[in-house]
Write a structure and sequence with these properties.
It is built from 13 helices and twelve strands. The protein is α+β, with helices and mostly antiparallel strands and about 375 residues long. The strands form three sheets. The chain has a seven-stranded mixed sheet with strand order 1-3-2-12-11-10-9, sandwiched between helices. It has a three-stranded antiparallel sheet with strand order 4-8-5. Strand 6 and strand 7 form a beta hairpin. The longest helix is centred in the last third of the chain and has 20 residues.
Length: about 375
Amino acid sequence: MILVLTVCLTFQAQPVDISDALKGLRDKNDLPGLVALAVQGDRVAAQGAAGVRKRGADAAMTINDRVHLGSCTKSMTATLIAILVAEKKLAWTTTVGDSFPRLKESMHPDWRGVTLEQLLTHRGGAPANLDADGLWGRLWNHKGSPTEQRLALVDVVVRRKPDTKPGGKYIYSNAGFAIAGAIAETTMREPWESLMQERIFKPLGMSSAGFGPPGSKDSLDQPRGHDAEGRPVEPGPGADNPAAIGPAGTVHCSLGDWAKYAFIHARMDPNGSKKPPRGAEGFLKALKPPAFEKLHAPPGIGEPRYAMGWIVADRDWADGPVLTHAGSNTMWFAVVWLAPKKDLALLAATNQAGDKAAAACDAAVVELLQAVQKK
């Protein structure tokens, strides 16, 4: 039985409203919409929203709208794996070879010893793209379930020699996280999407969380993603990456719900207070502080300092280490910054992709930080 609790994030009497600043950033970068939110000490300290859900439409984008997280999904998949490790369903040393015995004869020998830990730190030799042998195109056209899509991905990728020696060179790879997700669902005999709902979203009260493009095609009930040229993309085929790489980047949710998840990582980091956020005590019975130390620790082999779904860096404004990641499915852009010593999480997202979207989200994070520092 999964215990359902809700992480409680309260609003300060007057959280700083940065909507005007976001409007300026949205206009400067010619974006449809832009949202941002800061959490500090269990409280929403600053927030703002500007623009519209769809370019050319009147429906305003709001702070409660759902946004696509892209590759910020990766840390969530790693967190799911950490829960399954804590439950002794998996181990960080679980290998690709052990997980897919049916592929024993077709699998390249170098894949057999690749571990979950290596996959989740981009050190498993998984390819940077899936174009070889036309796999990417076939995944777009695959008519099976998401689980079947991921198994199809695994079947093709592991036939080829890893792109680098496992455990060595860093190669950023959506395929590696897709394989890790496939290991989880093969072991648990349950789709990755269901595991995410049961082990992460429901326990944390992330009621807005789902997969793929948010909203329905027949109603402008949620924002639309836009490509880098500003063209809106309606929900449906082509509005997100194939479900095959879901564990690498297909989650959507509101900023408030994303903050519930992100703030736990900030607080439970080795540099954080380790005081459980209110409402998260039940969730953290399955995921104790040593698990976060594992999730946040880069392997110590060259650059970048990439942990499991987090880039680790140092910033003066954070008084030490930060955890960060950005995500885009080519129709959205989202970014998160965690400053554990400041008990702080900063999040921003826009419903368009491209360089201007990234610049606007980075600037929105600066606005959040300045608002928090002034309080």
